[in-house]
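Bench notes, afternoon.
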Amino acid sequence: MGGACAALLTALGSGMLILLSGVVGLAATAAGVWWFLAHRGPVRVFGAILAVAAPLTTLGLYVSWGVWVNALVALGLWGVALSCARAALRRPEDERKALMRGERVPPPRRPVLIMNPKSGGGKVARFGLVERAEALGARVILLDPSAPADVGGLARKAVAEGADLLGVAGGDGTQALVAAVAAEHDLPFLVISAGTRNHFAMDLGLDRTDPSRCLDALTDGEELRIDLGDVAGRPFVNTVSFGVYADVVQRPEYRDDKAGTALDVLPDLLQGGFGDRLDATADSLPLTGQQALLVSNNPYAAPDPLGTVAARRTRLDGGELGVIGIRVDGAAQAAELAVLGNRATGLKVLTARRVEVGGVPGATISVAVDGEALTLPTPVVCTLRPRALRVLVPRDRPGSPVPPPPLDWRRLTRLAFPEEPAAGDGNPWDPRTS
């Protein structure tokens, strides 16, 4: 940080000008992003133009003033300082949690794998999963893309025929249905990362770039005991969403244009006028007037609603649901949410063993279960079955990315300037104690 300041000071009298123009450019960019997300029509177009033009104009001013080198050096040094700060705050236990470890078990004798050839844009065929699985002794049930399939029924039939392991190459919604059958019969379950996002596979530390590596568990695997979620009698492995996101998923155009559909409803969410408000109870704590509610199978390490794509769960065996509630009552609260993240007043982050989403008894509510659109009668109850699922994973797997720690400036200050221990604090090598 000192280097960044020094780079500005070496620009002679222009250092303050660099700083002020940078702040103005950043503010203009933020305003453009806000107008783009929170409005439609001409205002959205203007916001997009401003968000692009502001940083380019600032850079152009630096070039015309002849101080662009100092500005880039200062920016680079600031980035290095932030990286070093996060590295200093990282705890060794976070690295150890990046890969859950289980017990080594003998290979299954009669594994049965259900594969969806459409999942993930055709990963089953692209990675030769059927051929690889059959070469390892597994029986493969290939779903017919042209007809709906009773995945749970297929899994139960496989168990009745003597399967000693069930596995799925498909999305997280399909994974959950077969996982419930495996848990019901206390059989190991194999996750093959052939879906689109593979959040469940990521949190298990599996290789999401090459799903064929997940099949290594059939010959060299270890078994994890993890929790399995339940929402109104239906299993889930990742999340259950209520409110705005669930309403978006219900839209017919969502499957073909996820980003466009989300952008269409964002203005109503950010300005506080979209959808019905939710009332829920997390254990005994009431959550009233929520616009969106996310219930997860174990809490996320970085509960940031604006960065859930990269969010992950460090553990899947903690026995508690993660709960994130969002209530935005206008532009001020939306801006606070964007700036402060999980410290914003409009965001509730907690854990619970039971979450009940209320409503008029007998009415229905839109729910997204592991990304699948459903309509369920209220009240909807979410619980966990602790350590109910046996998951077989390869012993050699990449692990999960460790989320960066939040910037705690007080802790950074204590690390940079540690307090000198007082006399008599128990240090046997301190001469003041002898």
